[in-house]
């Protein structure tokens, strides 16, 4: 029998709400396509504004997806605010296709720093091609001192 994580439901709702208040998320057109405790999947559809002159997705789009997905994945563990401290990104292949998908997963949760891995795939004719991989250190922030966004 599948057991649901009822304590995660309000955490997920809070995270989704905060993420969609990020101006850059809406500017890029990225969406949270999956969110579970310790994981986050972000996706973005191909648009001319996101491409290099060669027609590939710009590396900055890949880096943004990794930056955001790893931070969100870390935040899902306890519903704690998080900020990227650093990440190592390897671009494995040019990202073409119709969509980019970034899958992030917490490798080691921590009280002060969590380690999160991410992989990016582009979808070409329905098949996924691995285009990037990353490992991130995510600083966990005390909710009481986390800055508040005023909109």
TrEMBL record:
It comes from the Bacteria. Pfam families: 4HBT. The keyword Hydrolase applies. Residues 55-122 form the Thioesterase domain. Keywords: Hydrolase. Gene3D superfamilies: Hotdog Thioesterase. The keyword Hydrolase applies. One of its GO terms (molecular function) is fatty acyl-CoA hydrolase activity. InterPro entries: ACOT13, HotDog_dom_sf, PAAI_dom, Thioestr_dom. Belongs to the thioesterase PaaI family. PANTHER family: ACYL-COENZYME A THIOESTERASE 13, THIOESTERASE SUPERFAMILY MEMBER-RELATED. This is Thioesterase domain-containing protein. It comes from Afipia broomeae ATCC 49717.
